[in-house]
Amino acid sequence: MTQNDATTILAIATLAALADGQQDNAEQARIAETAATLGLSDADAIIRSAAAGERSLASLAASLSSREARQAAYDTAAAVCHANGWINPSEAAFLRELASLVGADVGGTEDAIAAVNRLTDDPGARAGQAPRSALDQYILDQAMLTAALEILPDRLANLGILPLQLRLVHHIGQSHGLQQIDAAQIKDLAATLGLGAAAQVLEKAVRRTFGGLAGGLLGAFGGLVGGAAGSVAGLASGAAVTFAATYALGHVADQYYAQGRQLSASDLKALFARFRTDADTIFPRVEARIRELAQGGSLSSVLRSVQ
After folding, report:
1. Do the Cβ atoms of 81 and 16 come closer than 8 Å?
2. Domain boundaries, given as residue ranges, for the chain
3. What Rg do the C-alpha atoms of the chain give, in angstroms?
4. 29-76 pLDDT, tens digit each
5. Fewer CB within a 10 Å sphere, N or C end of the chain?
6. How far is 147 from 241, CA to CA, in rounded Å?
7. What's the angle, vertex CA 31, arms to CA 28 and CA 33, rounded to 5?
8. How far apart are CA 240 and CA 146, in angstroms?
């Protein structure tokens, strides 16, 4: 891929984030910041141009130089559209149009999404008050699962992380007797803790895409890790961060619902920091199990291991 491909993919990802009609200026700024940290030059200008509609989706798609760049554009856009774990009709229509324009193989992406949905789409699976030890174990299991997805070489594996985190919150709410939980409340809780933004998913998608496909771009994008799976140290670091975030999210949600959703944003953030610290001490003890979960080498195999 060329540098033009990279900036075009960023523009398409911006349009994907706008497809639901809900992205605000702050979110655009976060995506620009994320892209800049990845070494994409003029990221803010690229995103402003895309958000302003200066180039159509068809024009952007036509400028991609190769089949792998077109596939990468679709995979990255799909990751961004699924950033909140739920996809609306506008996002689905956007992805269908993009797939048609770039001739993308959507099977891999759809299989990845379906694999996540099979595991997470049963909101009543854990209804009712869960025993304390069972709930603690469930949070730990989900933290290990999301960490395992982080270290898979499959560039679509990160699609599963955020939906699992959001549905973790949903199940915990049900364990506290809340049968009807507004999806917007779950997203707001995650957003308060710094999770769930399109920028977060875009970073993961771009790192995975360019790490596996960029080749000659590695020099231009100095912040990116080379190789399909990155260094061993990088993998361990990414898995540890994801494990800690999921573990802390689960326990914060437990406290939040146990106290009748009365905790302030500052209280939630303080709890999140405390539980992340706890997770950092737990991760070395479960790292071997996380690597066992990831041994299947694909998103579907990891998800099957916990079904």
Report:
1. yes
2. 3-304
3. 19
4. 666 666 766 567 677 788 888 888 899 999 999 999 999 889 888 888
5. C
6. 8
7. 110
8. 10
